[in-house]
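Module 6 notes. Inverse folding takes a fixed backbone as the condition and produces residue identities as the prediction. Think of it as a translation problem where the source language is geometry and the target language is the twenty amino acids. Below is one complete input and output pair. Work through it position by position during the lab.
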């Protein structure tokens, strides 16, 4: 094979920097559970970074540094929102059950962006559905995916 087609290793750093994970422009509101998750993710990122540094693994170090930057920023900007007992209207931290026009009932807890997982019943406070729910009470209707839904329970 011709040497023209073989990449030379000249000792130069060939690993590329990963772009930073995007940071949301919205306030970083978190529940107590979300704050604990953020702190756990930060600790894990610190351990991974230290391990990659000790092993002198360039790719792992780049990935770990990216995660460490993200979770450090998210922890620094976290705004803990204490739980409220008020169930008369929807607010951050509320668990809301809606009844859709097609008969489906869905229950979501409104949480911070990093802790949101709609498949597991948690919804980001900046999502369109959460924003439509804020300030509403049981019996109010909202528009969801071009259909209406009624709030049937707030916990």
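Target side of the pair, the amino acids:
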């Amino acid at each position: 094979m011709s040497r023209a087609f073989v990449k030379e290793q000249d000792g130069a750093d060939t690993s590329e920097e990963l772009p930073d994970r995007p940071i949301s422009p919205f306030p970083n509101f978190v529940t107590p559970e979300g704050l604990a998750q953020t702190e756990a993710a930060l600790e894990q990122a610190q351990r991974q970074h230290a391990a990659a540094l000790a092993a002198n693994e360039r790719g792992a170090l780049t990935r770990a540094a990216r995660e460490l930057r993200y979770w450090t920023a998210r922890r620094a900007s976290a705004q803990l929102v204490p739980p409220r007992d008020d169930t008369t209207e929807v607010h951050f931290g509320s668990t809301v059950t809606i009844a859709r026009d097609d008969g489906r009932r869905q229950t979501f807890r409104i949480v911070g962006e990093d802790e949101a997982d709609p498949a597991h019943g948690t919804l980001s406070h900046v999502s369109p559905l959460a924003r439509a729910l804020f300030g509403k009470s049981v019996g109010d209707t909202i528009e969801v995916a071009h259909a209406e839904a009624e709030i049937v329970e707030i916990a």
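Reference fact for the lab report: The chain has two domains: 27-78, 95-154.
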